[in-house]
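note to self — DONT lose this again. spent like an hour looking for the file last time. sequence + predicted structure for the chain T wanted, 239 res
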Amino acid sequence: MFASILVNSIYEMKNYPVVLLNTVLSPLSFMLLIAFVSKGTLIPDAVEGGFIMSMFNSGMSLQGDLAHLKNDFKLQDMVVSSPTSPAAYVAGMALAEVIYSTPALAVLTVLAAVYVHPSLAQAAQLIAVLLLMFLASIALGYTLSTFSSDIVQSFAFSRLISTLFSTLPPVYYPITLIPVPFRYAAYLSPTTYAAEISQNATGLLSLSSPEVAGAWGILFVVTGLLALIAMKKARWREV
């Protein structure tokens, strides 16, 4: 796990610090757009959306990194032949993605303290939601990486999925701004439920207790299903 962190985050952060600009600018760019369009009224929603996007994109970045190491450096073949388990390998790479995203998370944390003012209980709910989103995206990213045979293909799928799940759904703004007939499409994305829980926890959106429980249930089910698929279908060994 320590080696994964060194290879996948510390090395790049130390030798190519310019790459960190992407992790910071990606969530903040959408946040600034929402802030300008809403004249500042949706900044708290956008800050929480930035957290969700950062954590989901961090997990999906795992797809490109794992595919690159597997296909170009044959690292997965070496790990397979070693005592290292798939869980340890993926956990180390996942921690590396979190460390890689720390600049963006640090900026968003400051903005949350200024604009959201979450209590300890609210912060705990936000962290739980972000953890579920991260675990779900890790499982999805890892599974897709084992099927990818080309780094270009892998990055294309990663960007497509990140856009579909963290940009198009109502993550940076409340779902109430979407006309009712189109809300059903938004609910196809698990990030919509993550945003609803986050916004409800901090008083930005009002949901009933059954709605909150249902949103939590869907997030747990989605995360569990993606983890199960990763364990059953991911190609850890070439056959």
